[in-house]
Amino acid sequence: MSDNKIIFVIIGVVLAVLLANNLQLFSVLPVEEQFKLEYNTIWSKLGDASSSDFTTSGAVQFGTGQYMDYGTWTDNNGEYILMKSIQSLTLDNKDYKGQKMVFYLTGKGYGDSVDVGVAGGCNVEGASLSCKKISGTYYTTCDYLLVEILPKRDTTQVYVKRNGVIINEITVTGQYNPTISCWTNSEPRVIEFFGLIDFIGYQAQYECDLSSDEVWVEETFAQDFTIDDLEFVPTKFCQATRPMILRNIDLGETSLSREDGIDLLNTGKTIPVGTNELVIVNYATYYVEGVNNKCEPNEANIKINGEWVCQSIIEPITVVVQCQQDSDCPINCGGITASCVNNFCEYSGDCIIPPPQKESVWSLIQEAFSNLWNAIKAIFGIA
After folding, report:
1. DSSP of 246-314, one letter per residue?
2. Looking at 312, 346, 375, which one is the last position of a domain?
3. Four-residue CA torsion sign, 287, 288, 292, 293
4. What residues are paired with 108 via a beta bridge?
5. Lowest mean pLDDT among 9-23, 29-43, 181-195, 229-243
6. 221 and 194 belong to one structural domain
7. Is residue 146 over pLDDT 90?
């Protein structure tokens, strides 16, 4: 059997073993699960939502099951927010100006006749669902819609993307609180239309350059915290020059990686703060006259005695750890003892290096005779 055939046989055996053990070779997360890894969740059909996140002009309802019956939609995979009739949902629990936002939704509707038209629709900041009447049935169905709200650099405008294509620009004055609206068409035989929202989320931008109306802010935390504990709504984080800093009373300061710091904060996770530790966060936010200040490039707003003042950003100290225990410290000669003190190796004693051993005359004669005998055997073929 050739080498190539052997390789193919081995690959086949490995695949067969994996399949036999029901191992998943490639995993694709549900869309809302993927969004939850990237965004701070406002709403997820998996149940992460609070009525304090939004207001509506109508009732918010929930379903249970996998069918629609007289106005009640349900889904075995989780709960949906159901928006009935002429209704809007406004995200007004905070200012989303400067945030990147994502909306993922669909819709369903029905009438009392197979001849009825499309039952209704939904719209997010100018981006609408694509819905159609299912021929020969009572029902309207809609494709899933992905809407992204993206801040336009150095302006007060935002782009609105519909399924990856920019379809609208909005000028933001003051706070930004986007709205989703759904409606039921007025055709007499249409009974109901529902907007079904799988996910709404937001995140601050990963960007190091400020716009003219942004400032840097620095806050320090001595206990666990989330993005909601920040004094201002963050618009940007900069890992390159303003990473999150961990200050340990015993070990000094070190910068946290993006994965262990900014990413956790920007997706709504909790940042743990241990005993004798402080975590320092730098972020950008909008300038508020009389509250925060426009500082120099190497400064940030830091709260002192209740007021925000500009102060220099201290470069993080790199913590060098040499050891955890005495045995971690290398010893290269006798007479030396090593101790691990505060993660550094300390040595005591005098290095004793044994003198080289001198060879005797007799050993030199033996070595010469051995070499001569080996040469004679080689010449005469003596075994």
Report:
1. EEETTTEEEEPPTTTTHHHHHTT--B---TTEEEEEEEEEE--TTTS----TTEEEEEETTEEEEEEPP
2. 312
3. positive
4. 141, 194
5. 9-23
6. no
7. yes
Q: How far apart are CA 215 and CA 295, in angstroms?
A: 7
Q: What global pTM score does this model have?
A: 0.67
Q: Which residue has the higher pLDDT, 110 or 55?
A: 110
What average pLDDT does this structure show over 164-184?
Answer: 89
Q: How far apart are the C-alpha atoms of 132 and 142, rounded to whole Å?
A: 6
Residue 161 scores a pLDDT above 50? yes
Q: Are strands 214-221 and 299-304 parallel, antiparallel or unpaired?
A: parallel
Distance CA 90, CA 83 (A): 12
**312, 329, 346 — which closes off a domain?**
312
Please state, in angstroms and rounded to a whole number, the distance separating the CA atoms of residues 35 and 376: 84
Are 111 and 194 spatial neighbours (Cβ–Cβ below 8 Å)? no
Nearest residue to 182 via CA among 141, 111, 121, 132: 121
Whether residue 185 contacts residue 193, with contact meaning beta carbons closer than 8 Å, is answered with yes
Task: Please give the residue range of the domain that contains residue 79.
Answer: 31-203
Q: Is residue 287 part of a domain?
A: yes
Looking at residue 380, its pLDDT comes to: 67
Sheet arrangement for strand 87-90: 55-56, 87-90, 179-184, 120-124, 127-128
